[in-house]
Design goal:
Elements (H helix, E strand, L loop, with lengths): L1 H13 L4 H8 L3 H8 L7 H11 L3 H4 L16 H12 L1
Helix pairs in contact: 2-3
Length: 91
């Protein structure tokens, strides 16, 4: 998925880190980071989770499902819970 590589690169560049620095933080090789960012390889789940935690973004953002970064600090309120609460209030 091309968007994943773009998002990983965007996150890294947003705080002015080199591929080598990110690689050392993750415990990977710089060449691996380059391959993820250029879509030559898909990053493993462990790497994706590290990016999500380190940059406080959701995996939906990394996968391009949303442009809203929504990390752990956002208020979680799915539509299903709202509907359930409304139905209980009606009773």
């Amino acid at each position: 998925m091309e968007i994943v590589g773009q998002r990983l690169k965007l996150l890294r560049e947003s705080i002015k880190l080199s591929q080598a620095k990110i690689a050392s933080l993750i415990g990977a090789k710089q060449t691996s980071i380059n391959r993820y960012e250029t879509n030559q390889y898909s990053p493993p789940l462990k790497v994706l989770l590290w990016y999500a935690d380190y940059f406080d973004v959701s995996l939906d953002y990394i996968f391009g499902r949303t442009n809203n970064q929504q990390g752990k600090l956002y208020h979680y309120e799915p539509e299903a819970l709202k509907v359930k609460a409304e139905n209980q209030a009606d009773m």
